[in-house]
Specification:
The complex is a heterodimer of chains A (130) and B (165).
Chain A lengths: L1 H19 L7 H6 L1 H12 L4 H5 L6 H13 L3 E6 L2 E6 L1 H37 L1
Antiparallel strand pairs in A: 1-2
Helix pairs in contact in A: 1-5
Chain B lengths: L6 E6 L4 E8 L3 H9 L1 H7 L6 E7 L6 E7 L5 E12 L3 E9 L5 E15 L2 E10 L2 H17 L2 H12 L1
Chain lengths: 130, 165
Amino acid sequence: MQKNRLLFILATVRLHKLLKTGIMRRDVFQAIADPTRRAIIALIALQAMTPNSIADNFKTTRQAVSKHLGILTECELVKQESQGREIYYSLKIEKMKEIDKWLEQYRKIWENRFNQLDNVLSTIDRKKIE
Amino acid sequence: MNNNLQFDFTVDKSAKTVYITREFNAELPLVWDAFTKQEILDQWWAPKPYMSKTKSMDFKVGGRRFYAMVSPDGQENWQIQDYTSISPKTNFKYFSVFADKDENPHLPGSNWDLSFSEQDGITRVSITINNDSLERMEKMIEMGFKEGITMTLNELENLLLKLKK
């Protein structure tokens, strides 16, 4: 158990180092593509949690959960806060909203594109009748 | 726009796929032409104030459309569409990639599948866009985002008025 915990901490530290140096650049869509990461997001949306308490909810190893948290952190979807010896992870709501905003803009593009097509179609239609 | 016309837009992030369905108050052959003839495509494909500029288009299996989305300040975002399958007035598919001005593709790209059907003079178009990678999907949406902010409601109204004349 102690050995596992040590490995978990080492893996977390190593990942954060990698992330800091920019070796593993990620994007938000990659962050939310994985079902475990989506579940983590759902969990910490309700309350800030430590990596251990998050890991208790999954059958996967703590190392795997640590890796997912690392990815979410780099995508700036989650933030960390230290309380004593524990690190608490919570969701950055504003970043999640950003994703929705993007999609909404893309939706708008199509809406406008199709409205333009409506107009073009009615013009051509009329020409045919004339 | 006729509000009775259906418009569905869904994004499945995990499947890296965008689904779009829209109905048009026009007969199928006309809508088909609007999607497959360059002179009509360039009239509506780019959301204003962007302009669609097709440099070449050969609508046949193995053929290609090479075009740019031109921003109001003249910046050209080139794209390639390679037609992979065509069933006249029913369906066509193409592989789309961003490119440079010399027609060099920037992989990865996305696979587009467009289906057409008509009922009572209303034509329904269903589009499925499947991206090779999440980065590509993010880029596609990012481009849409850029175009989206450039486009203001006023500019759109002006365009509608002009087209109605």
